[in-house]
Amino acid sequence: MWCEAVRWREHGELGARRFETAARARRTASLALSNRKEFTTPHNGAINSLQVDLTERRYLLSGASDGSAAIFDVQNATEYEAGFIAKHRSILLVDKQHENGHKFVVSMAVWYPVDTGLFVTASFDQYVKVWDTNSTQLVMDFKMPGKVYSAAMSPIATTHMLIATGSADVQVHLCDIASGAFTHTLSSHRDGIMSLEWSTSSEWILMSGGCDGAIRFWDIRRAGCFLVLDQSRSQLGRRPPFLEGTSDKIWFVSHISDPLNSLQPSSSSKIYSAQQRTGKSSDSRLRLWDIDSGCNTLVNFEAMRLQTSKPLQLAVTEDPSLVFIPCMASIKAYNLWSGMTFQTFRGHYEPVNCCYCSAQEQELYTGSNDMQILVWSPSTPAFTEMPLQEDDGKRQTDFVVDDDNWSD
């Protein structure tokens, strides 16, 4: 089938965009635990947050429950084991031993969107801190009224440098890096704020998910939220014409039934995901929403089992066609539009907390309570054909690595 697609592309029967989509889908379908790339983490606690920088798409930032944050170069290995397996060790580490390090769990670590020179960490010690990557020094910090569950910066902002923070307090606090002060707060939630995400189509739109079960949308230039998603409002059978790019107001939201504990955007400005949890019980359901109408589209996602003890970080492919959900010690990939299970990834020994899709490397990174970051890459054969060489103007015959070379 793939050879036919290549042939159709060569003959001009298949457009470039459709061919690219088919190639990405094929590589995504072949994702498997990488046998050529490993991360050696310095963390001594569960991995709670993962993000690749938005500028160079090269550096992976992680936050852990031991109060540490680390940075890895995903493109250049630190060393090679047996000349084959690329080992990636941290190139920067901020932990409790640092004079300004966090004292408790790092719940979120995010990059400054337009420069890898800064990154932000949020912690249960009630502080949000901004770090200089080059000097590993603290630039500024913000004291919050409670445990900080989430922090987010707009990936497209050009007129502000705000960090939105969600904590055990019922308000969303906006911190300004430019001035080092709080600008204002957003009030409507009745319980703690578990997750936050900025819109990728407007620098003024912010989404929040709280322990009160509400998903609220804010225009930070105005008082009060302008939209609250209600799962009782539904519209059966409506599907966004996403592949044609004709809709600008389609969002994806996944949730469980009461408190919202995760919001994760895809690389597209049209799609977002979220997840909710509730103390001892949970319906473990995902839901797809049409934000144009604020209605639940009733996509029937297959059942899953989710841990409810902490926020979870989801991931969506760039297409977007798949959503990756941490399901206890495994990761499940669901088809975004049909709700069917596409694939289940098993490799961690303890519950998984976070997923991140790298469009640049076409890889999936996952962090778990087992203190490991695993890499899931498109599968490649262990042995490949050696390149053809020329000697004295004559092309040598093909040589395959695993061919025997016994002499007669």
What does this protein look like?
The protein is mainly β and 408 residues long. The chain has a domain at 35-233 and 244-257 and 269-311 and 334-342: 7 Propeller (Methylamine Dehydrogenase, Chain H). The protein has 2 helices and 33 strands. The protein has helices at 2-10, 16-29, and strands spanning 31-33, 37-40, 47-52, 59-64, 69-73, 79-81, 85-94, 106-111, 118-123, 127-132, 137-143, 148-153, 162-167, 171-176, 181-187, 193-198, 205-210, 215-219, 225-228, 251-253, 260-265, 272-276, 287-290, 295-296, 315-316, 322-327, 330-335, 341-346, 352-358, 363-368, 373-378, 390-391, 394-395. Strands 2, 3, 4, 5, 6 and 7 form a 6-stranded mixed beta sheet that branches. Strand 25 and strand 26 form a beta hairpin. Helix 1 (2-10) runs antiparallel to helix 2. The two termini are 41 Å apart. Residues 236-259, 264-282 and 381-405 have low confidence and may be disordered. InterPro entries: Rad28/ERCC8/Ckn1/ATCSA-1, WD40/YVTN_repeat-like_dom_sf, WD40_PAC1, WD40_repeat_CS, WD40_repeat_dom_sf, WD40_rpt. Pathway: Protein modification; protein ubiquitination. Residues 389-408 are annotated as: Disordered.
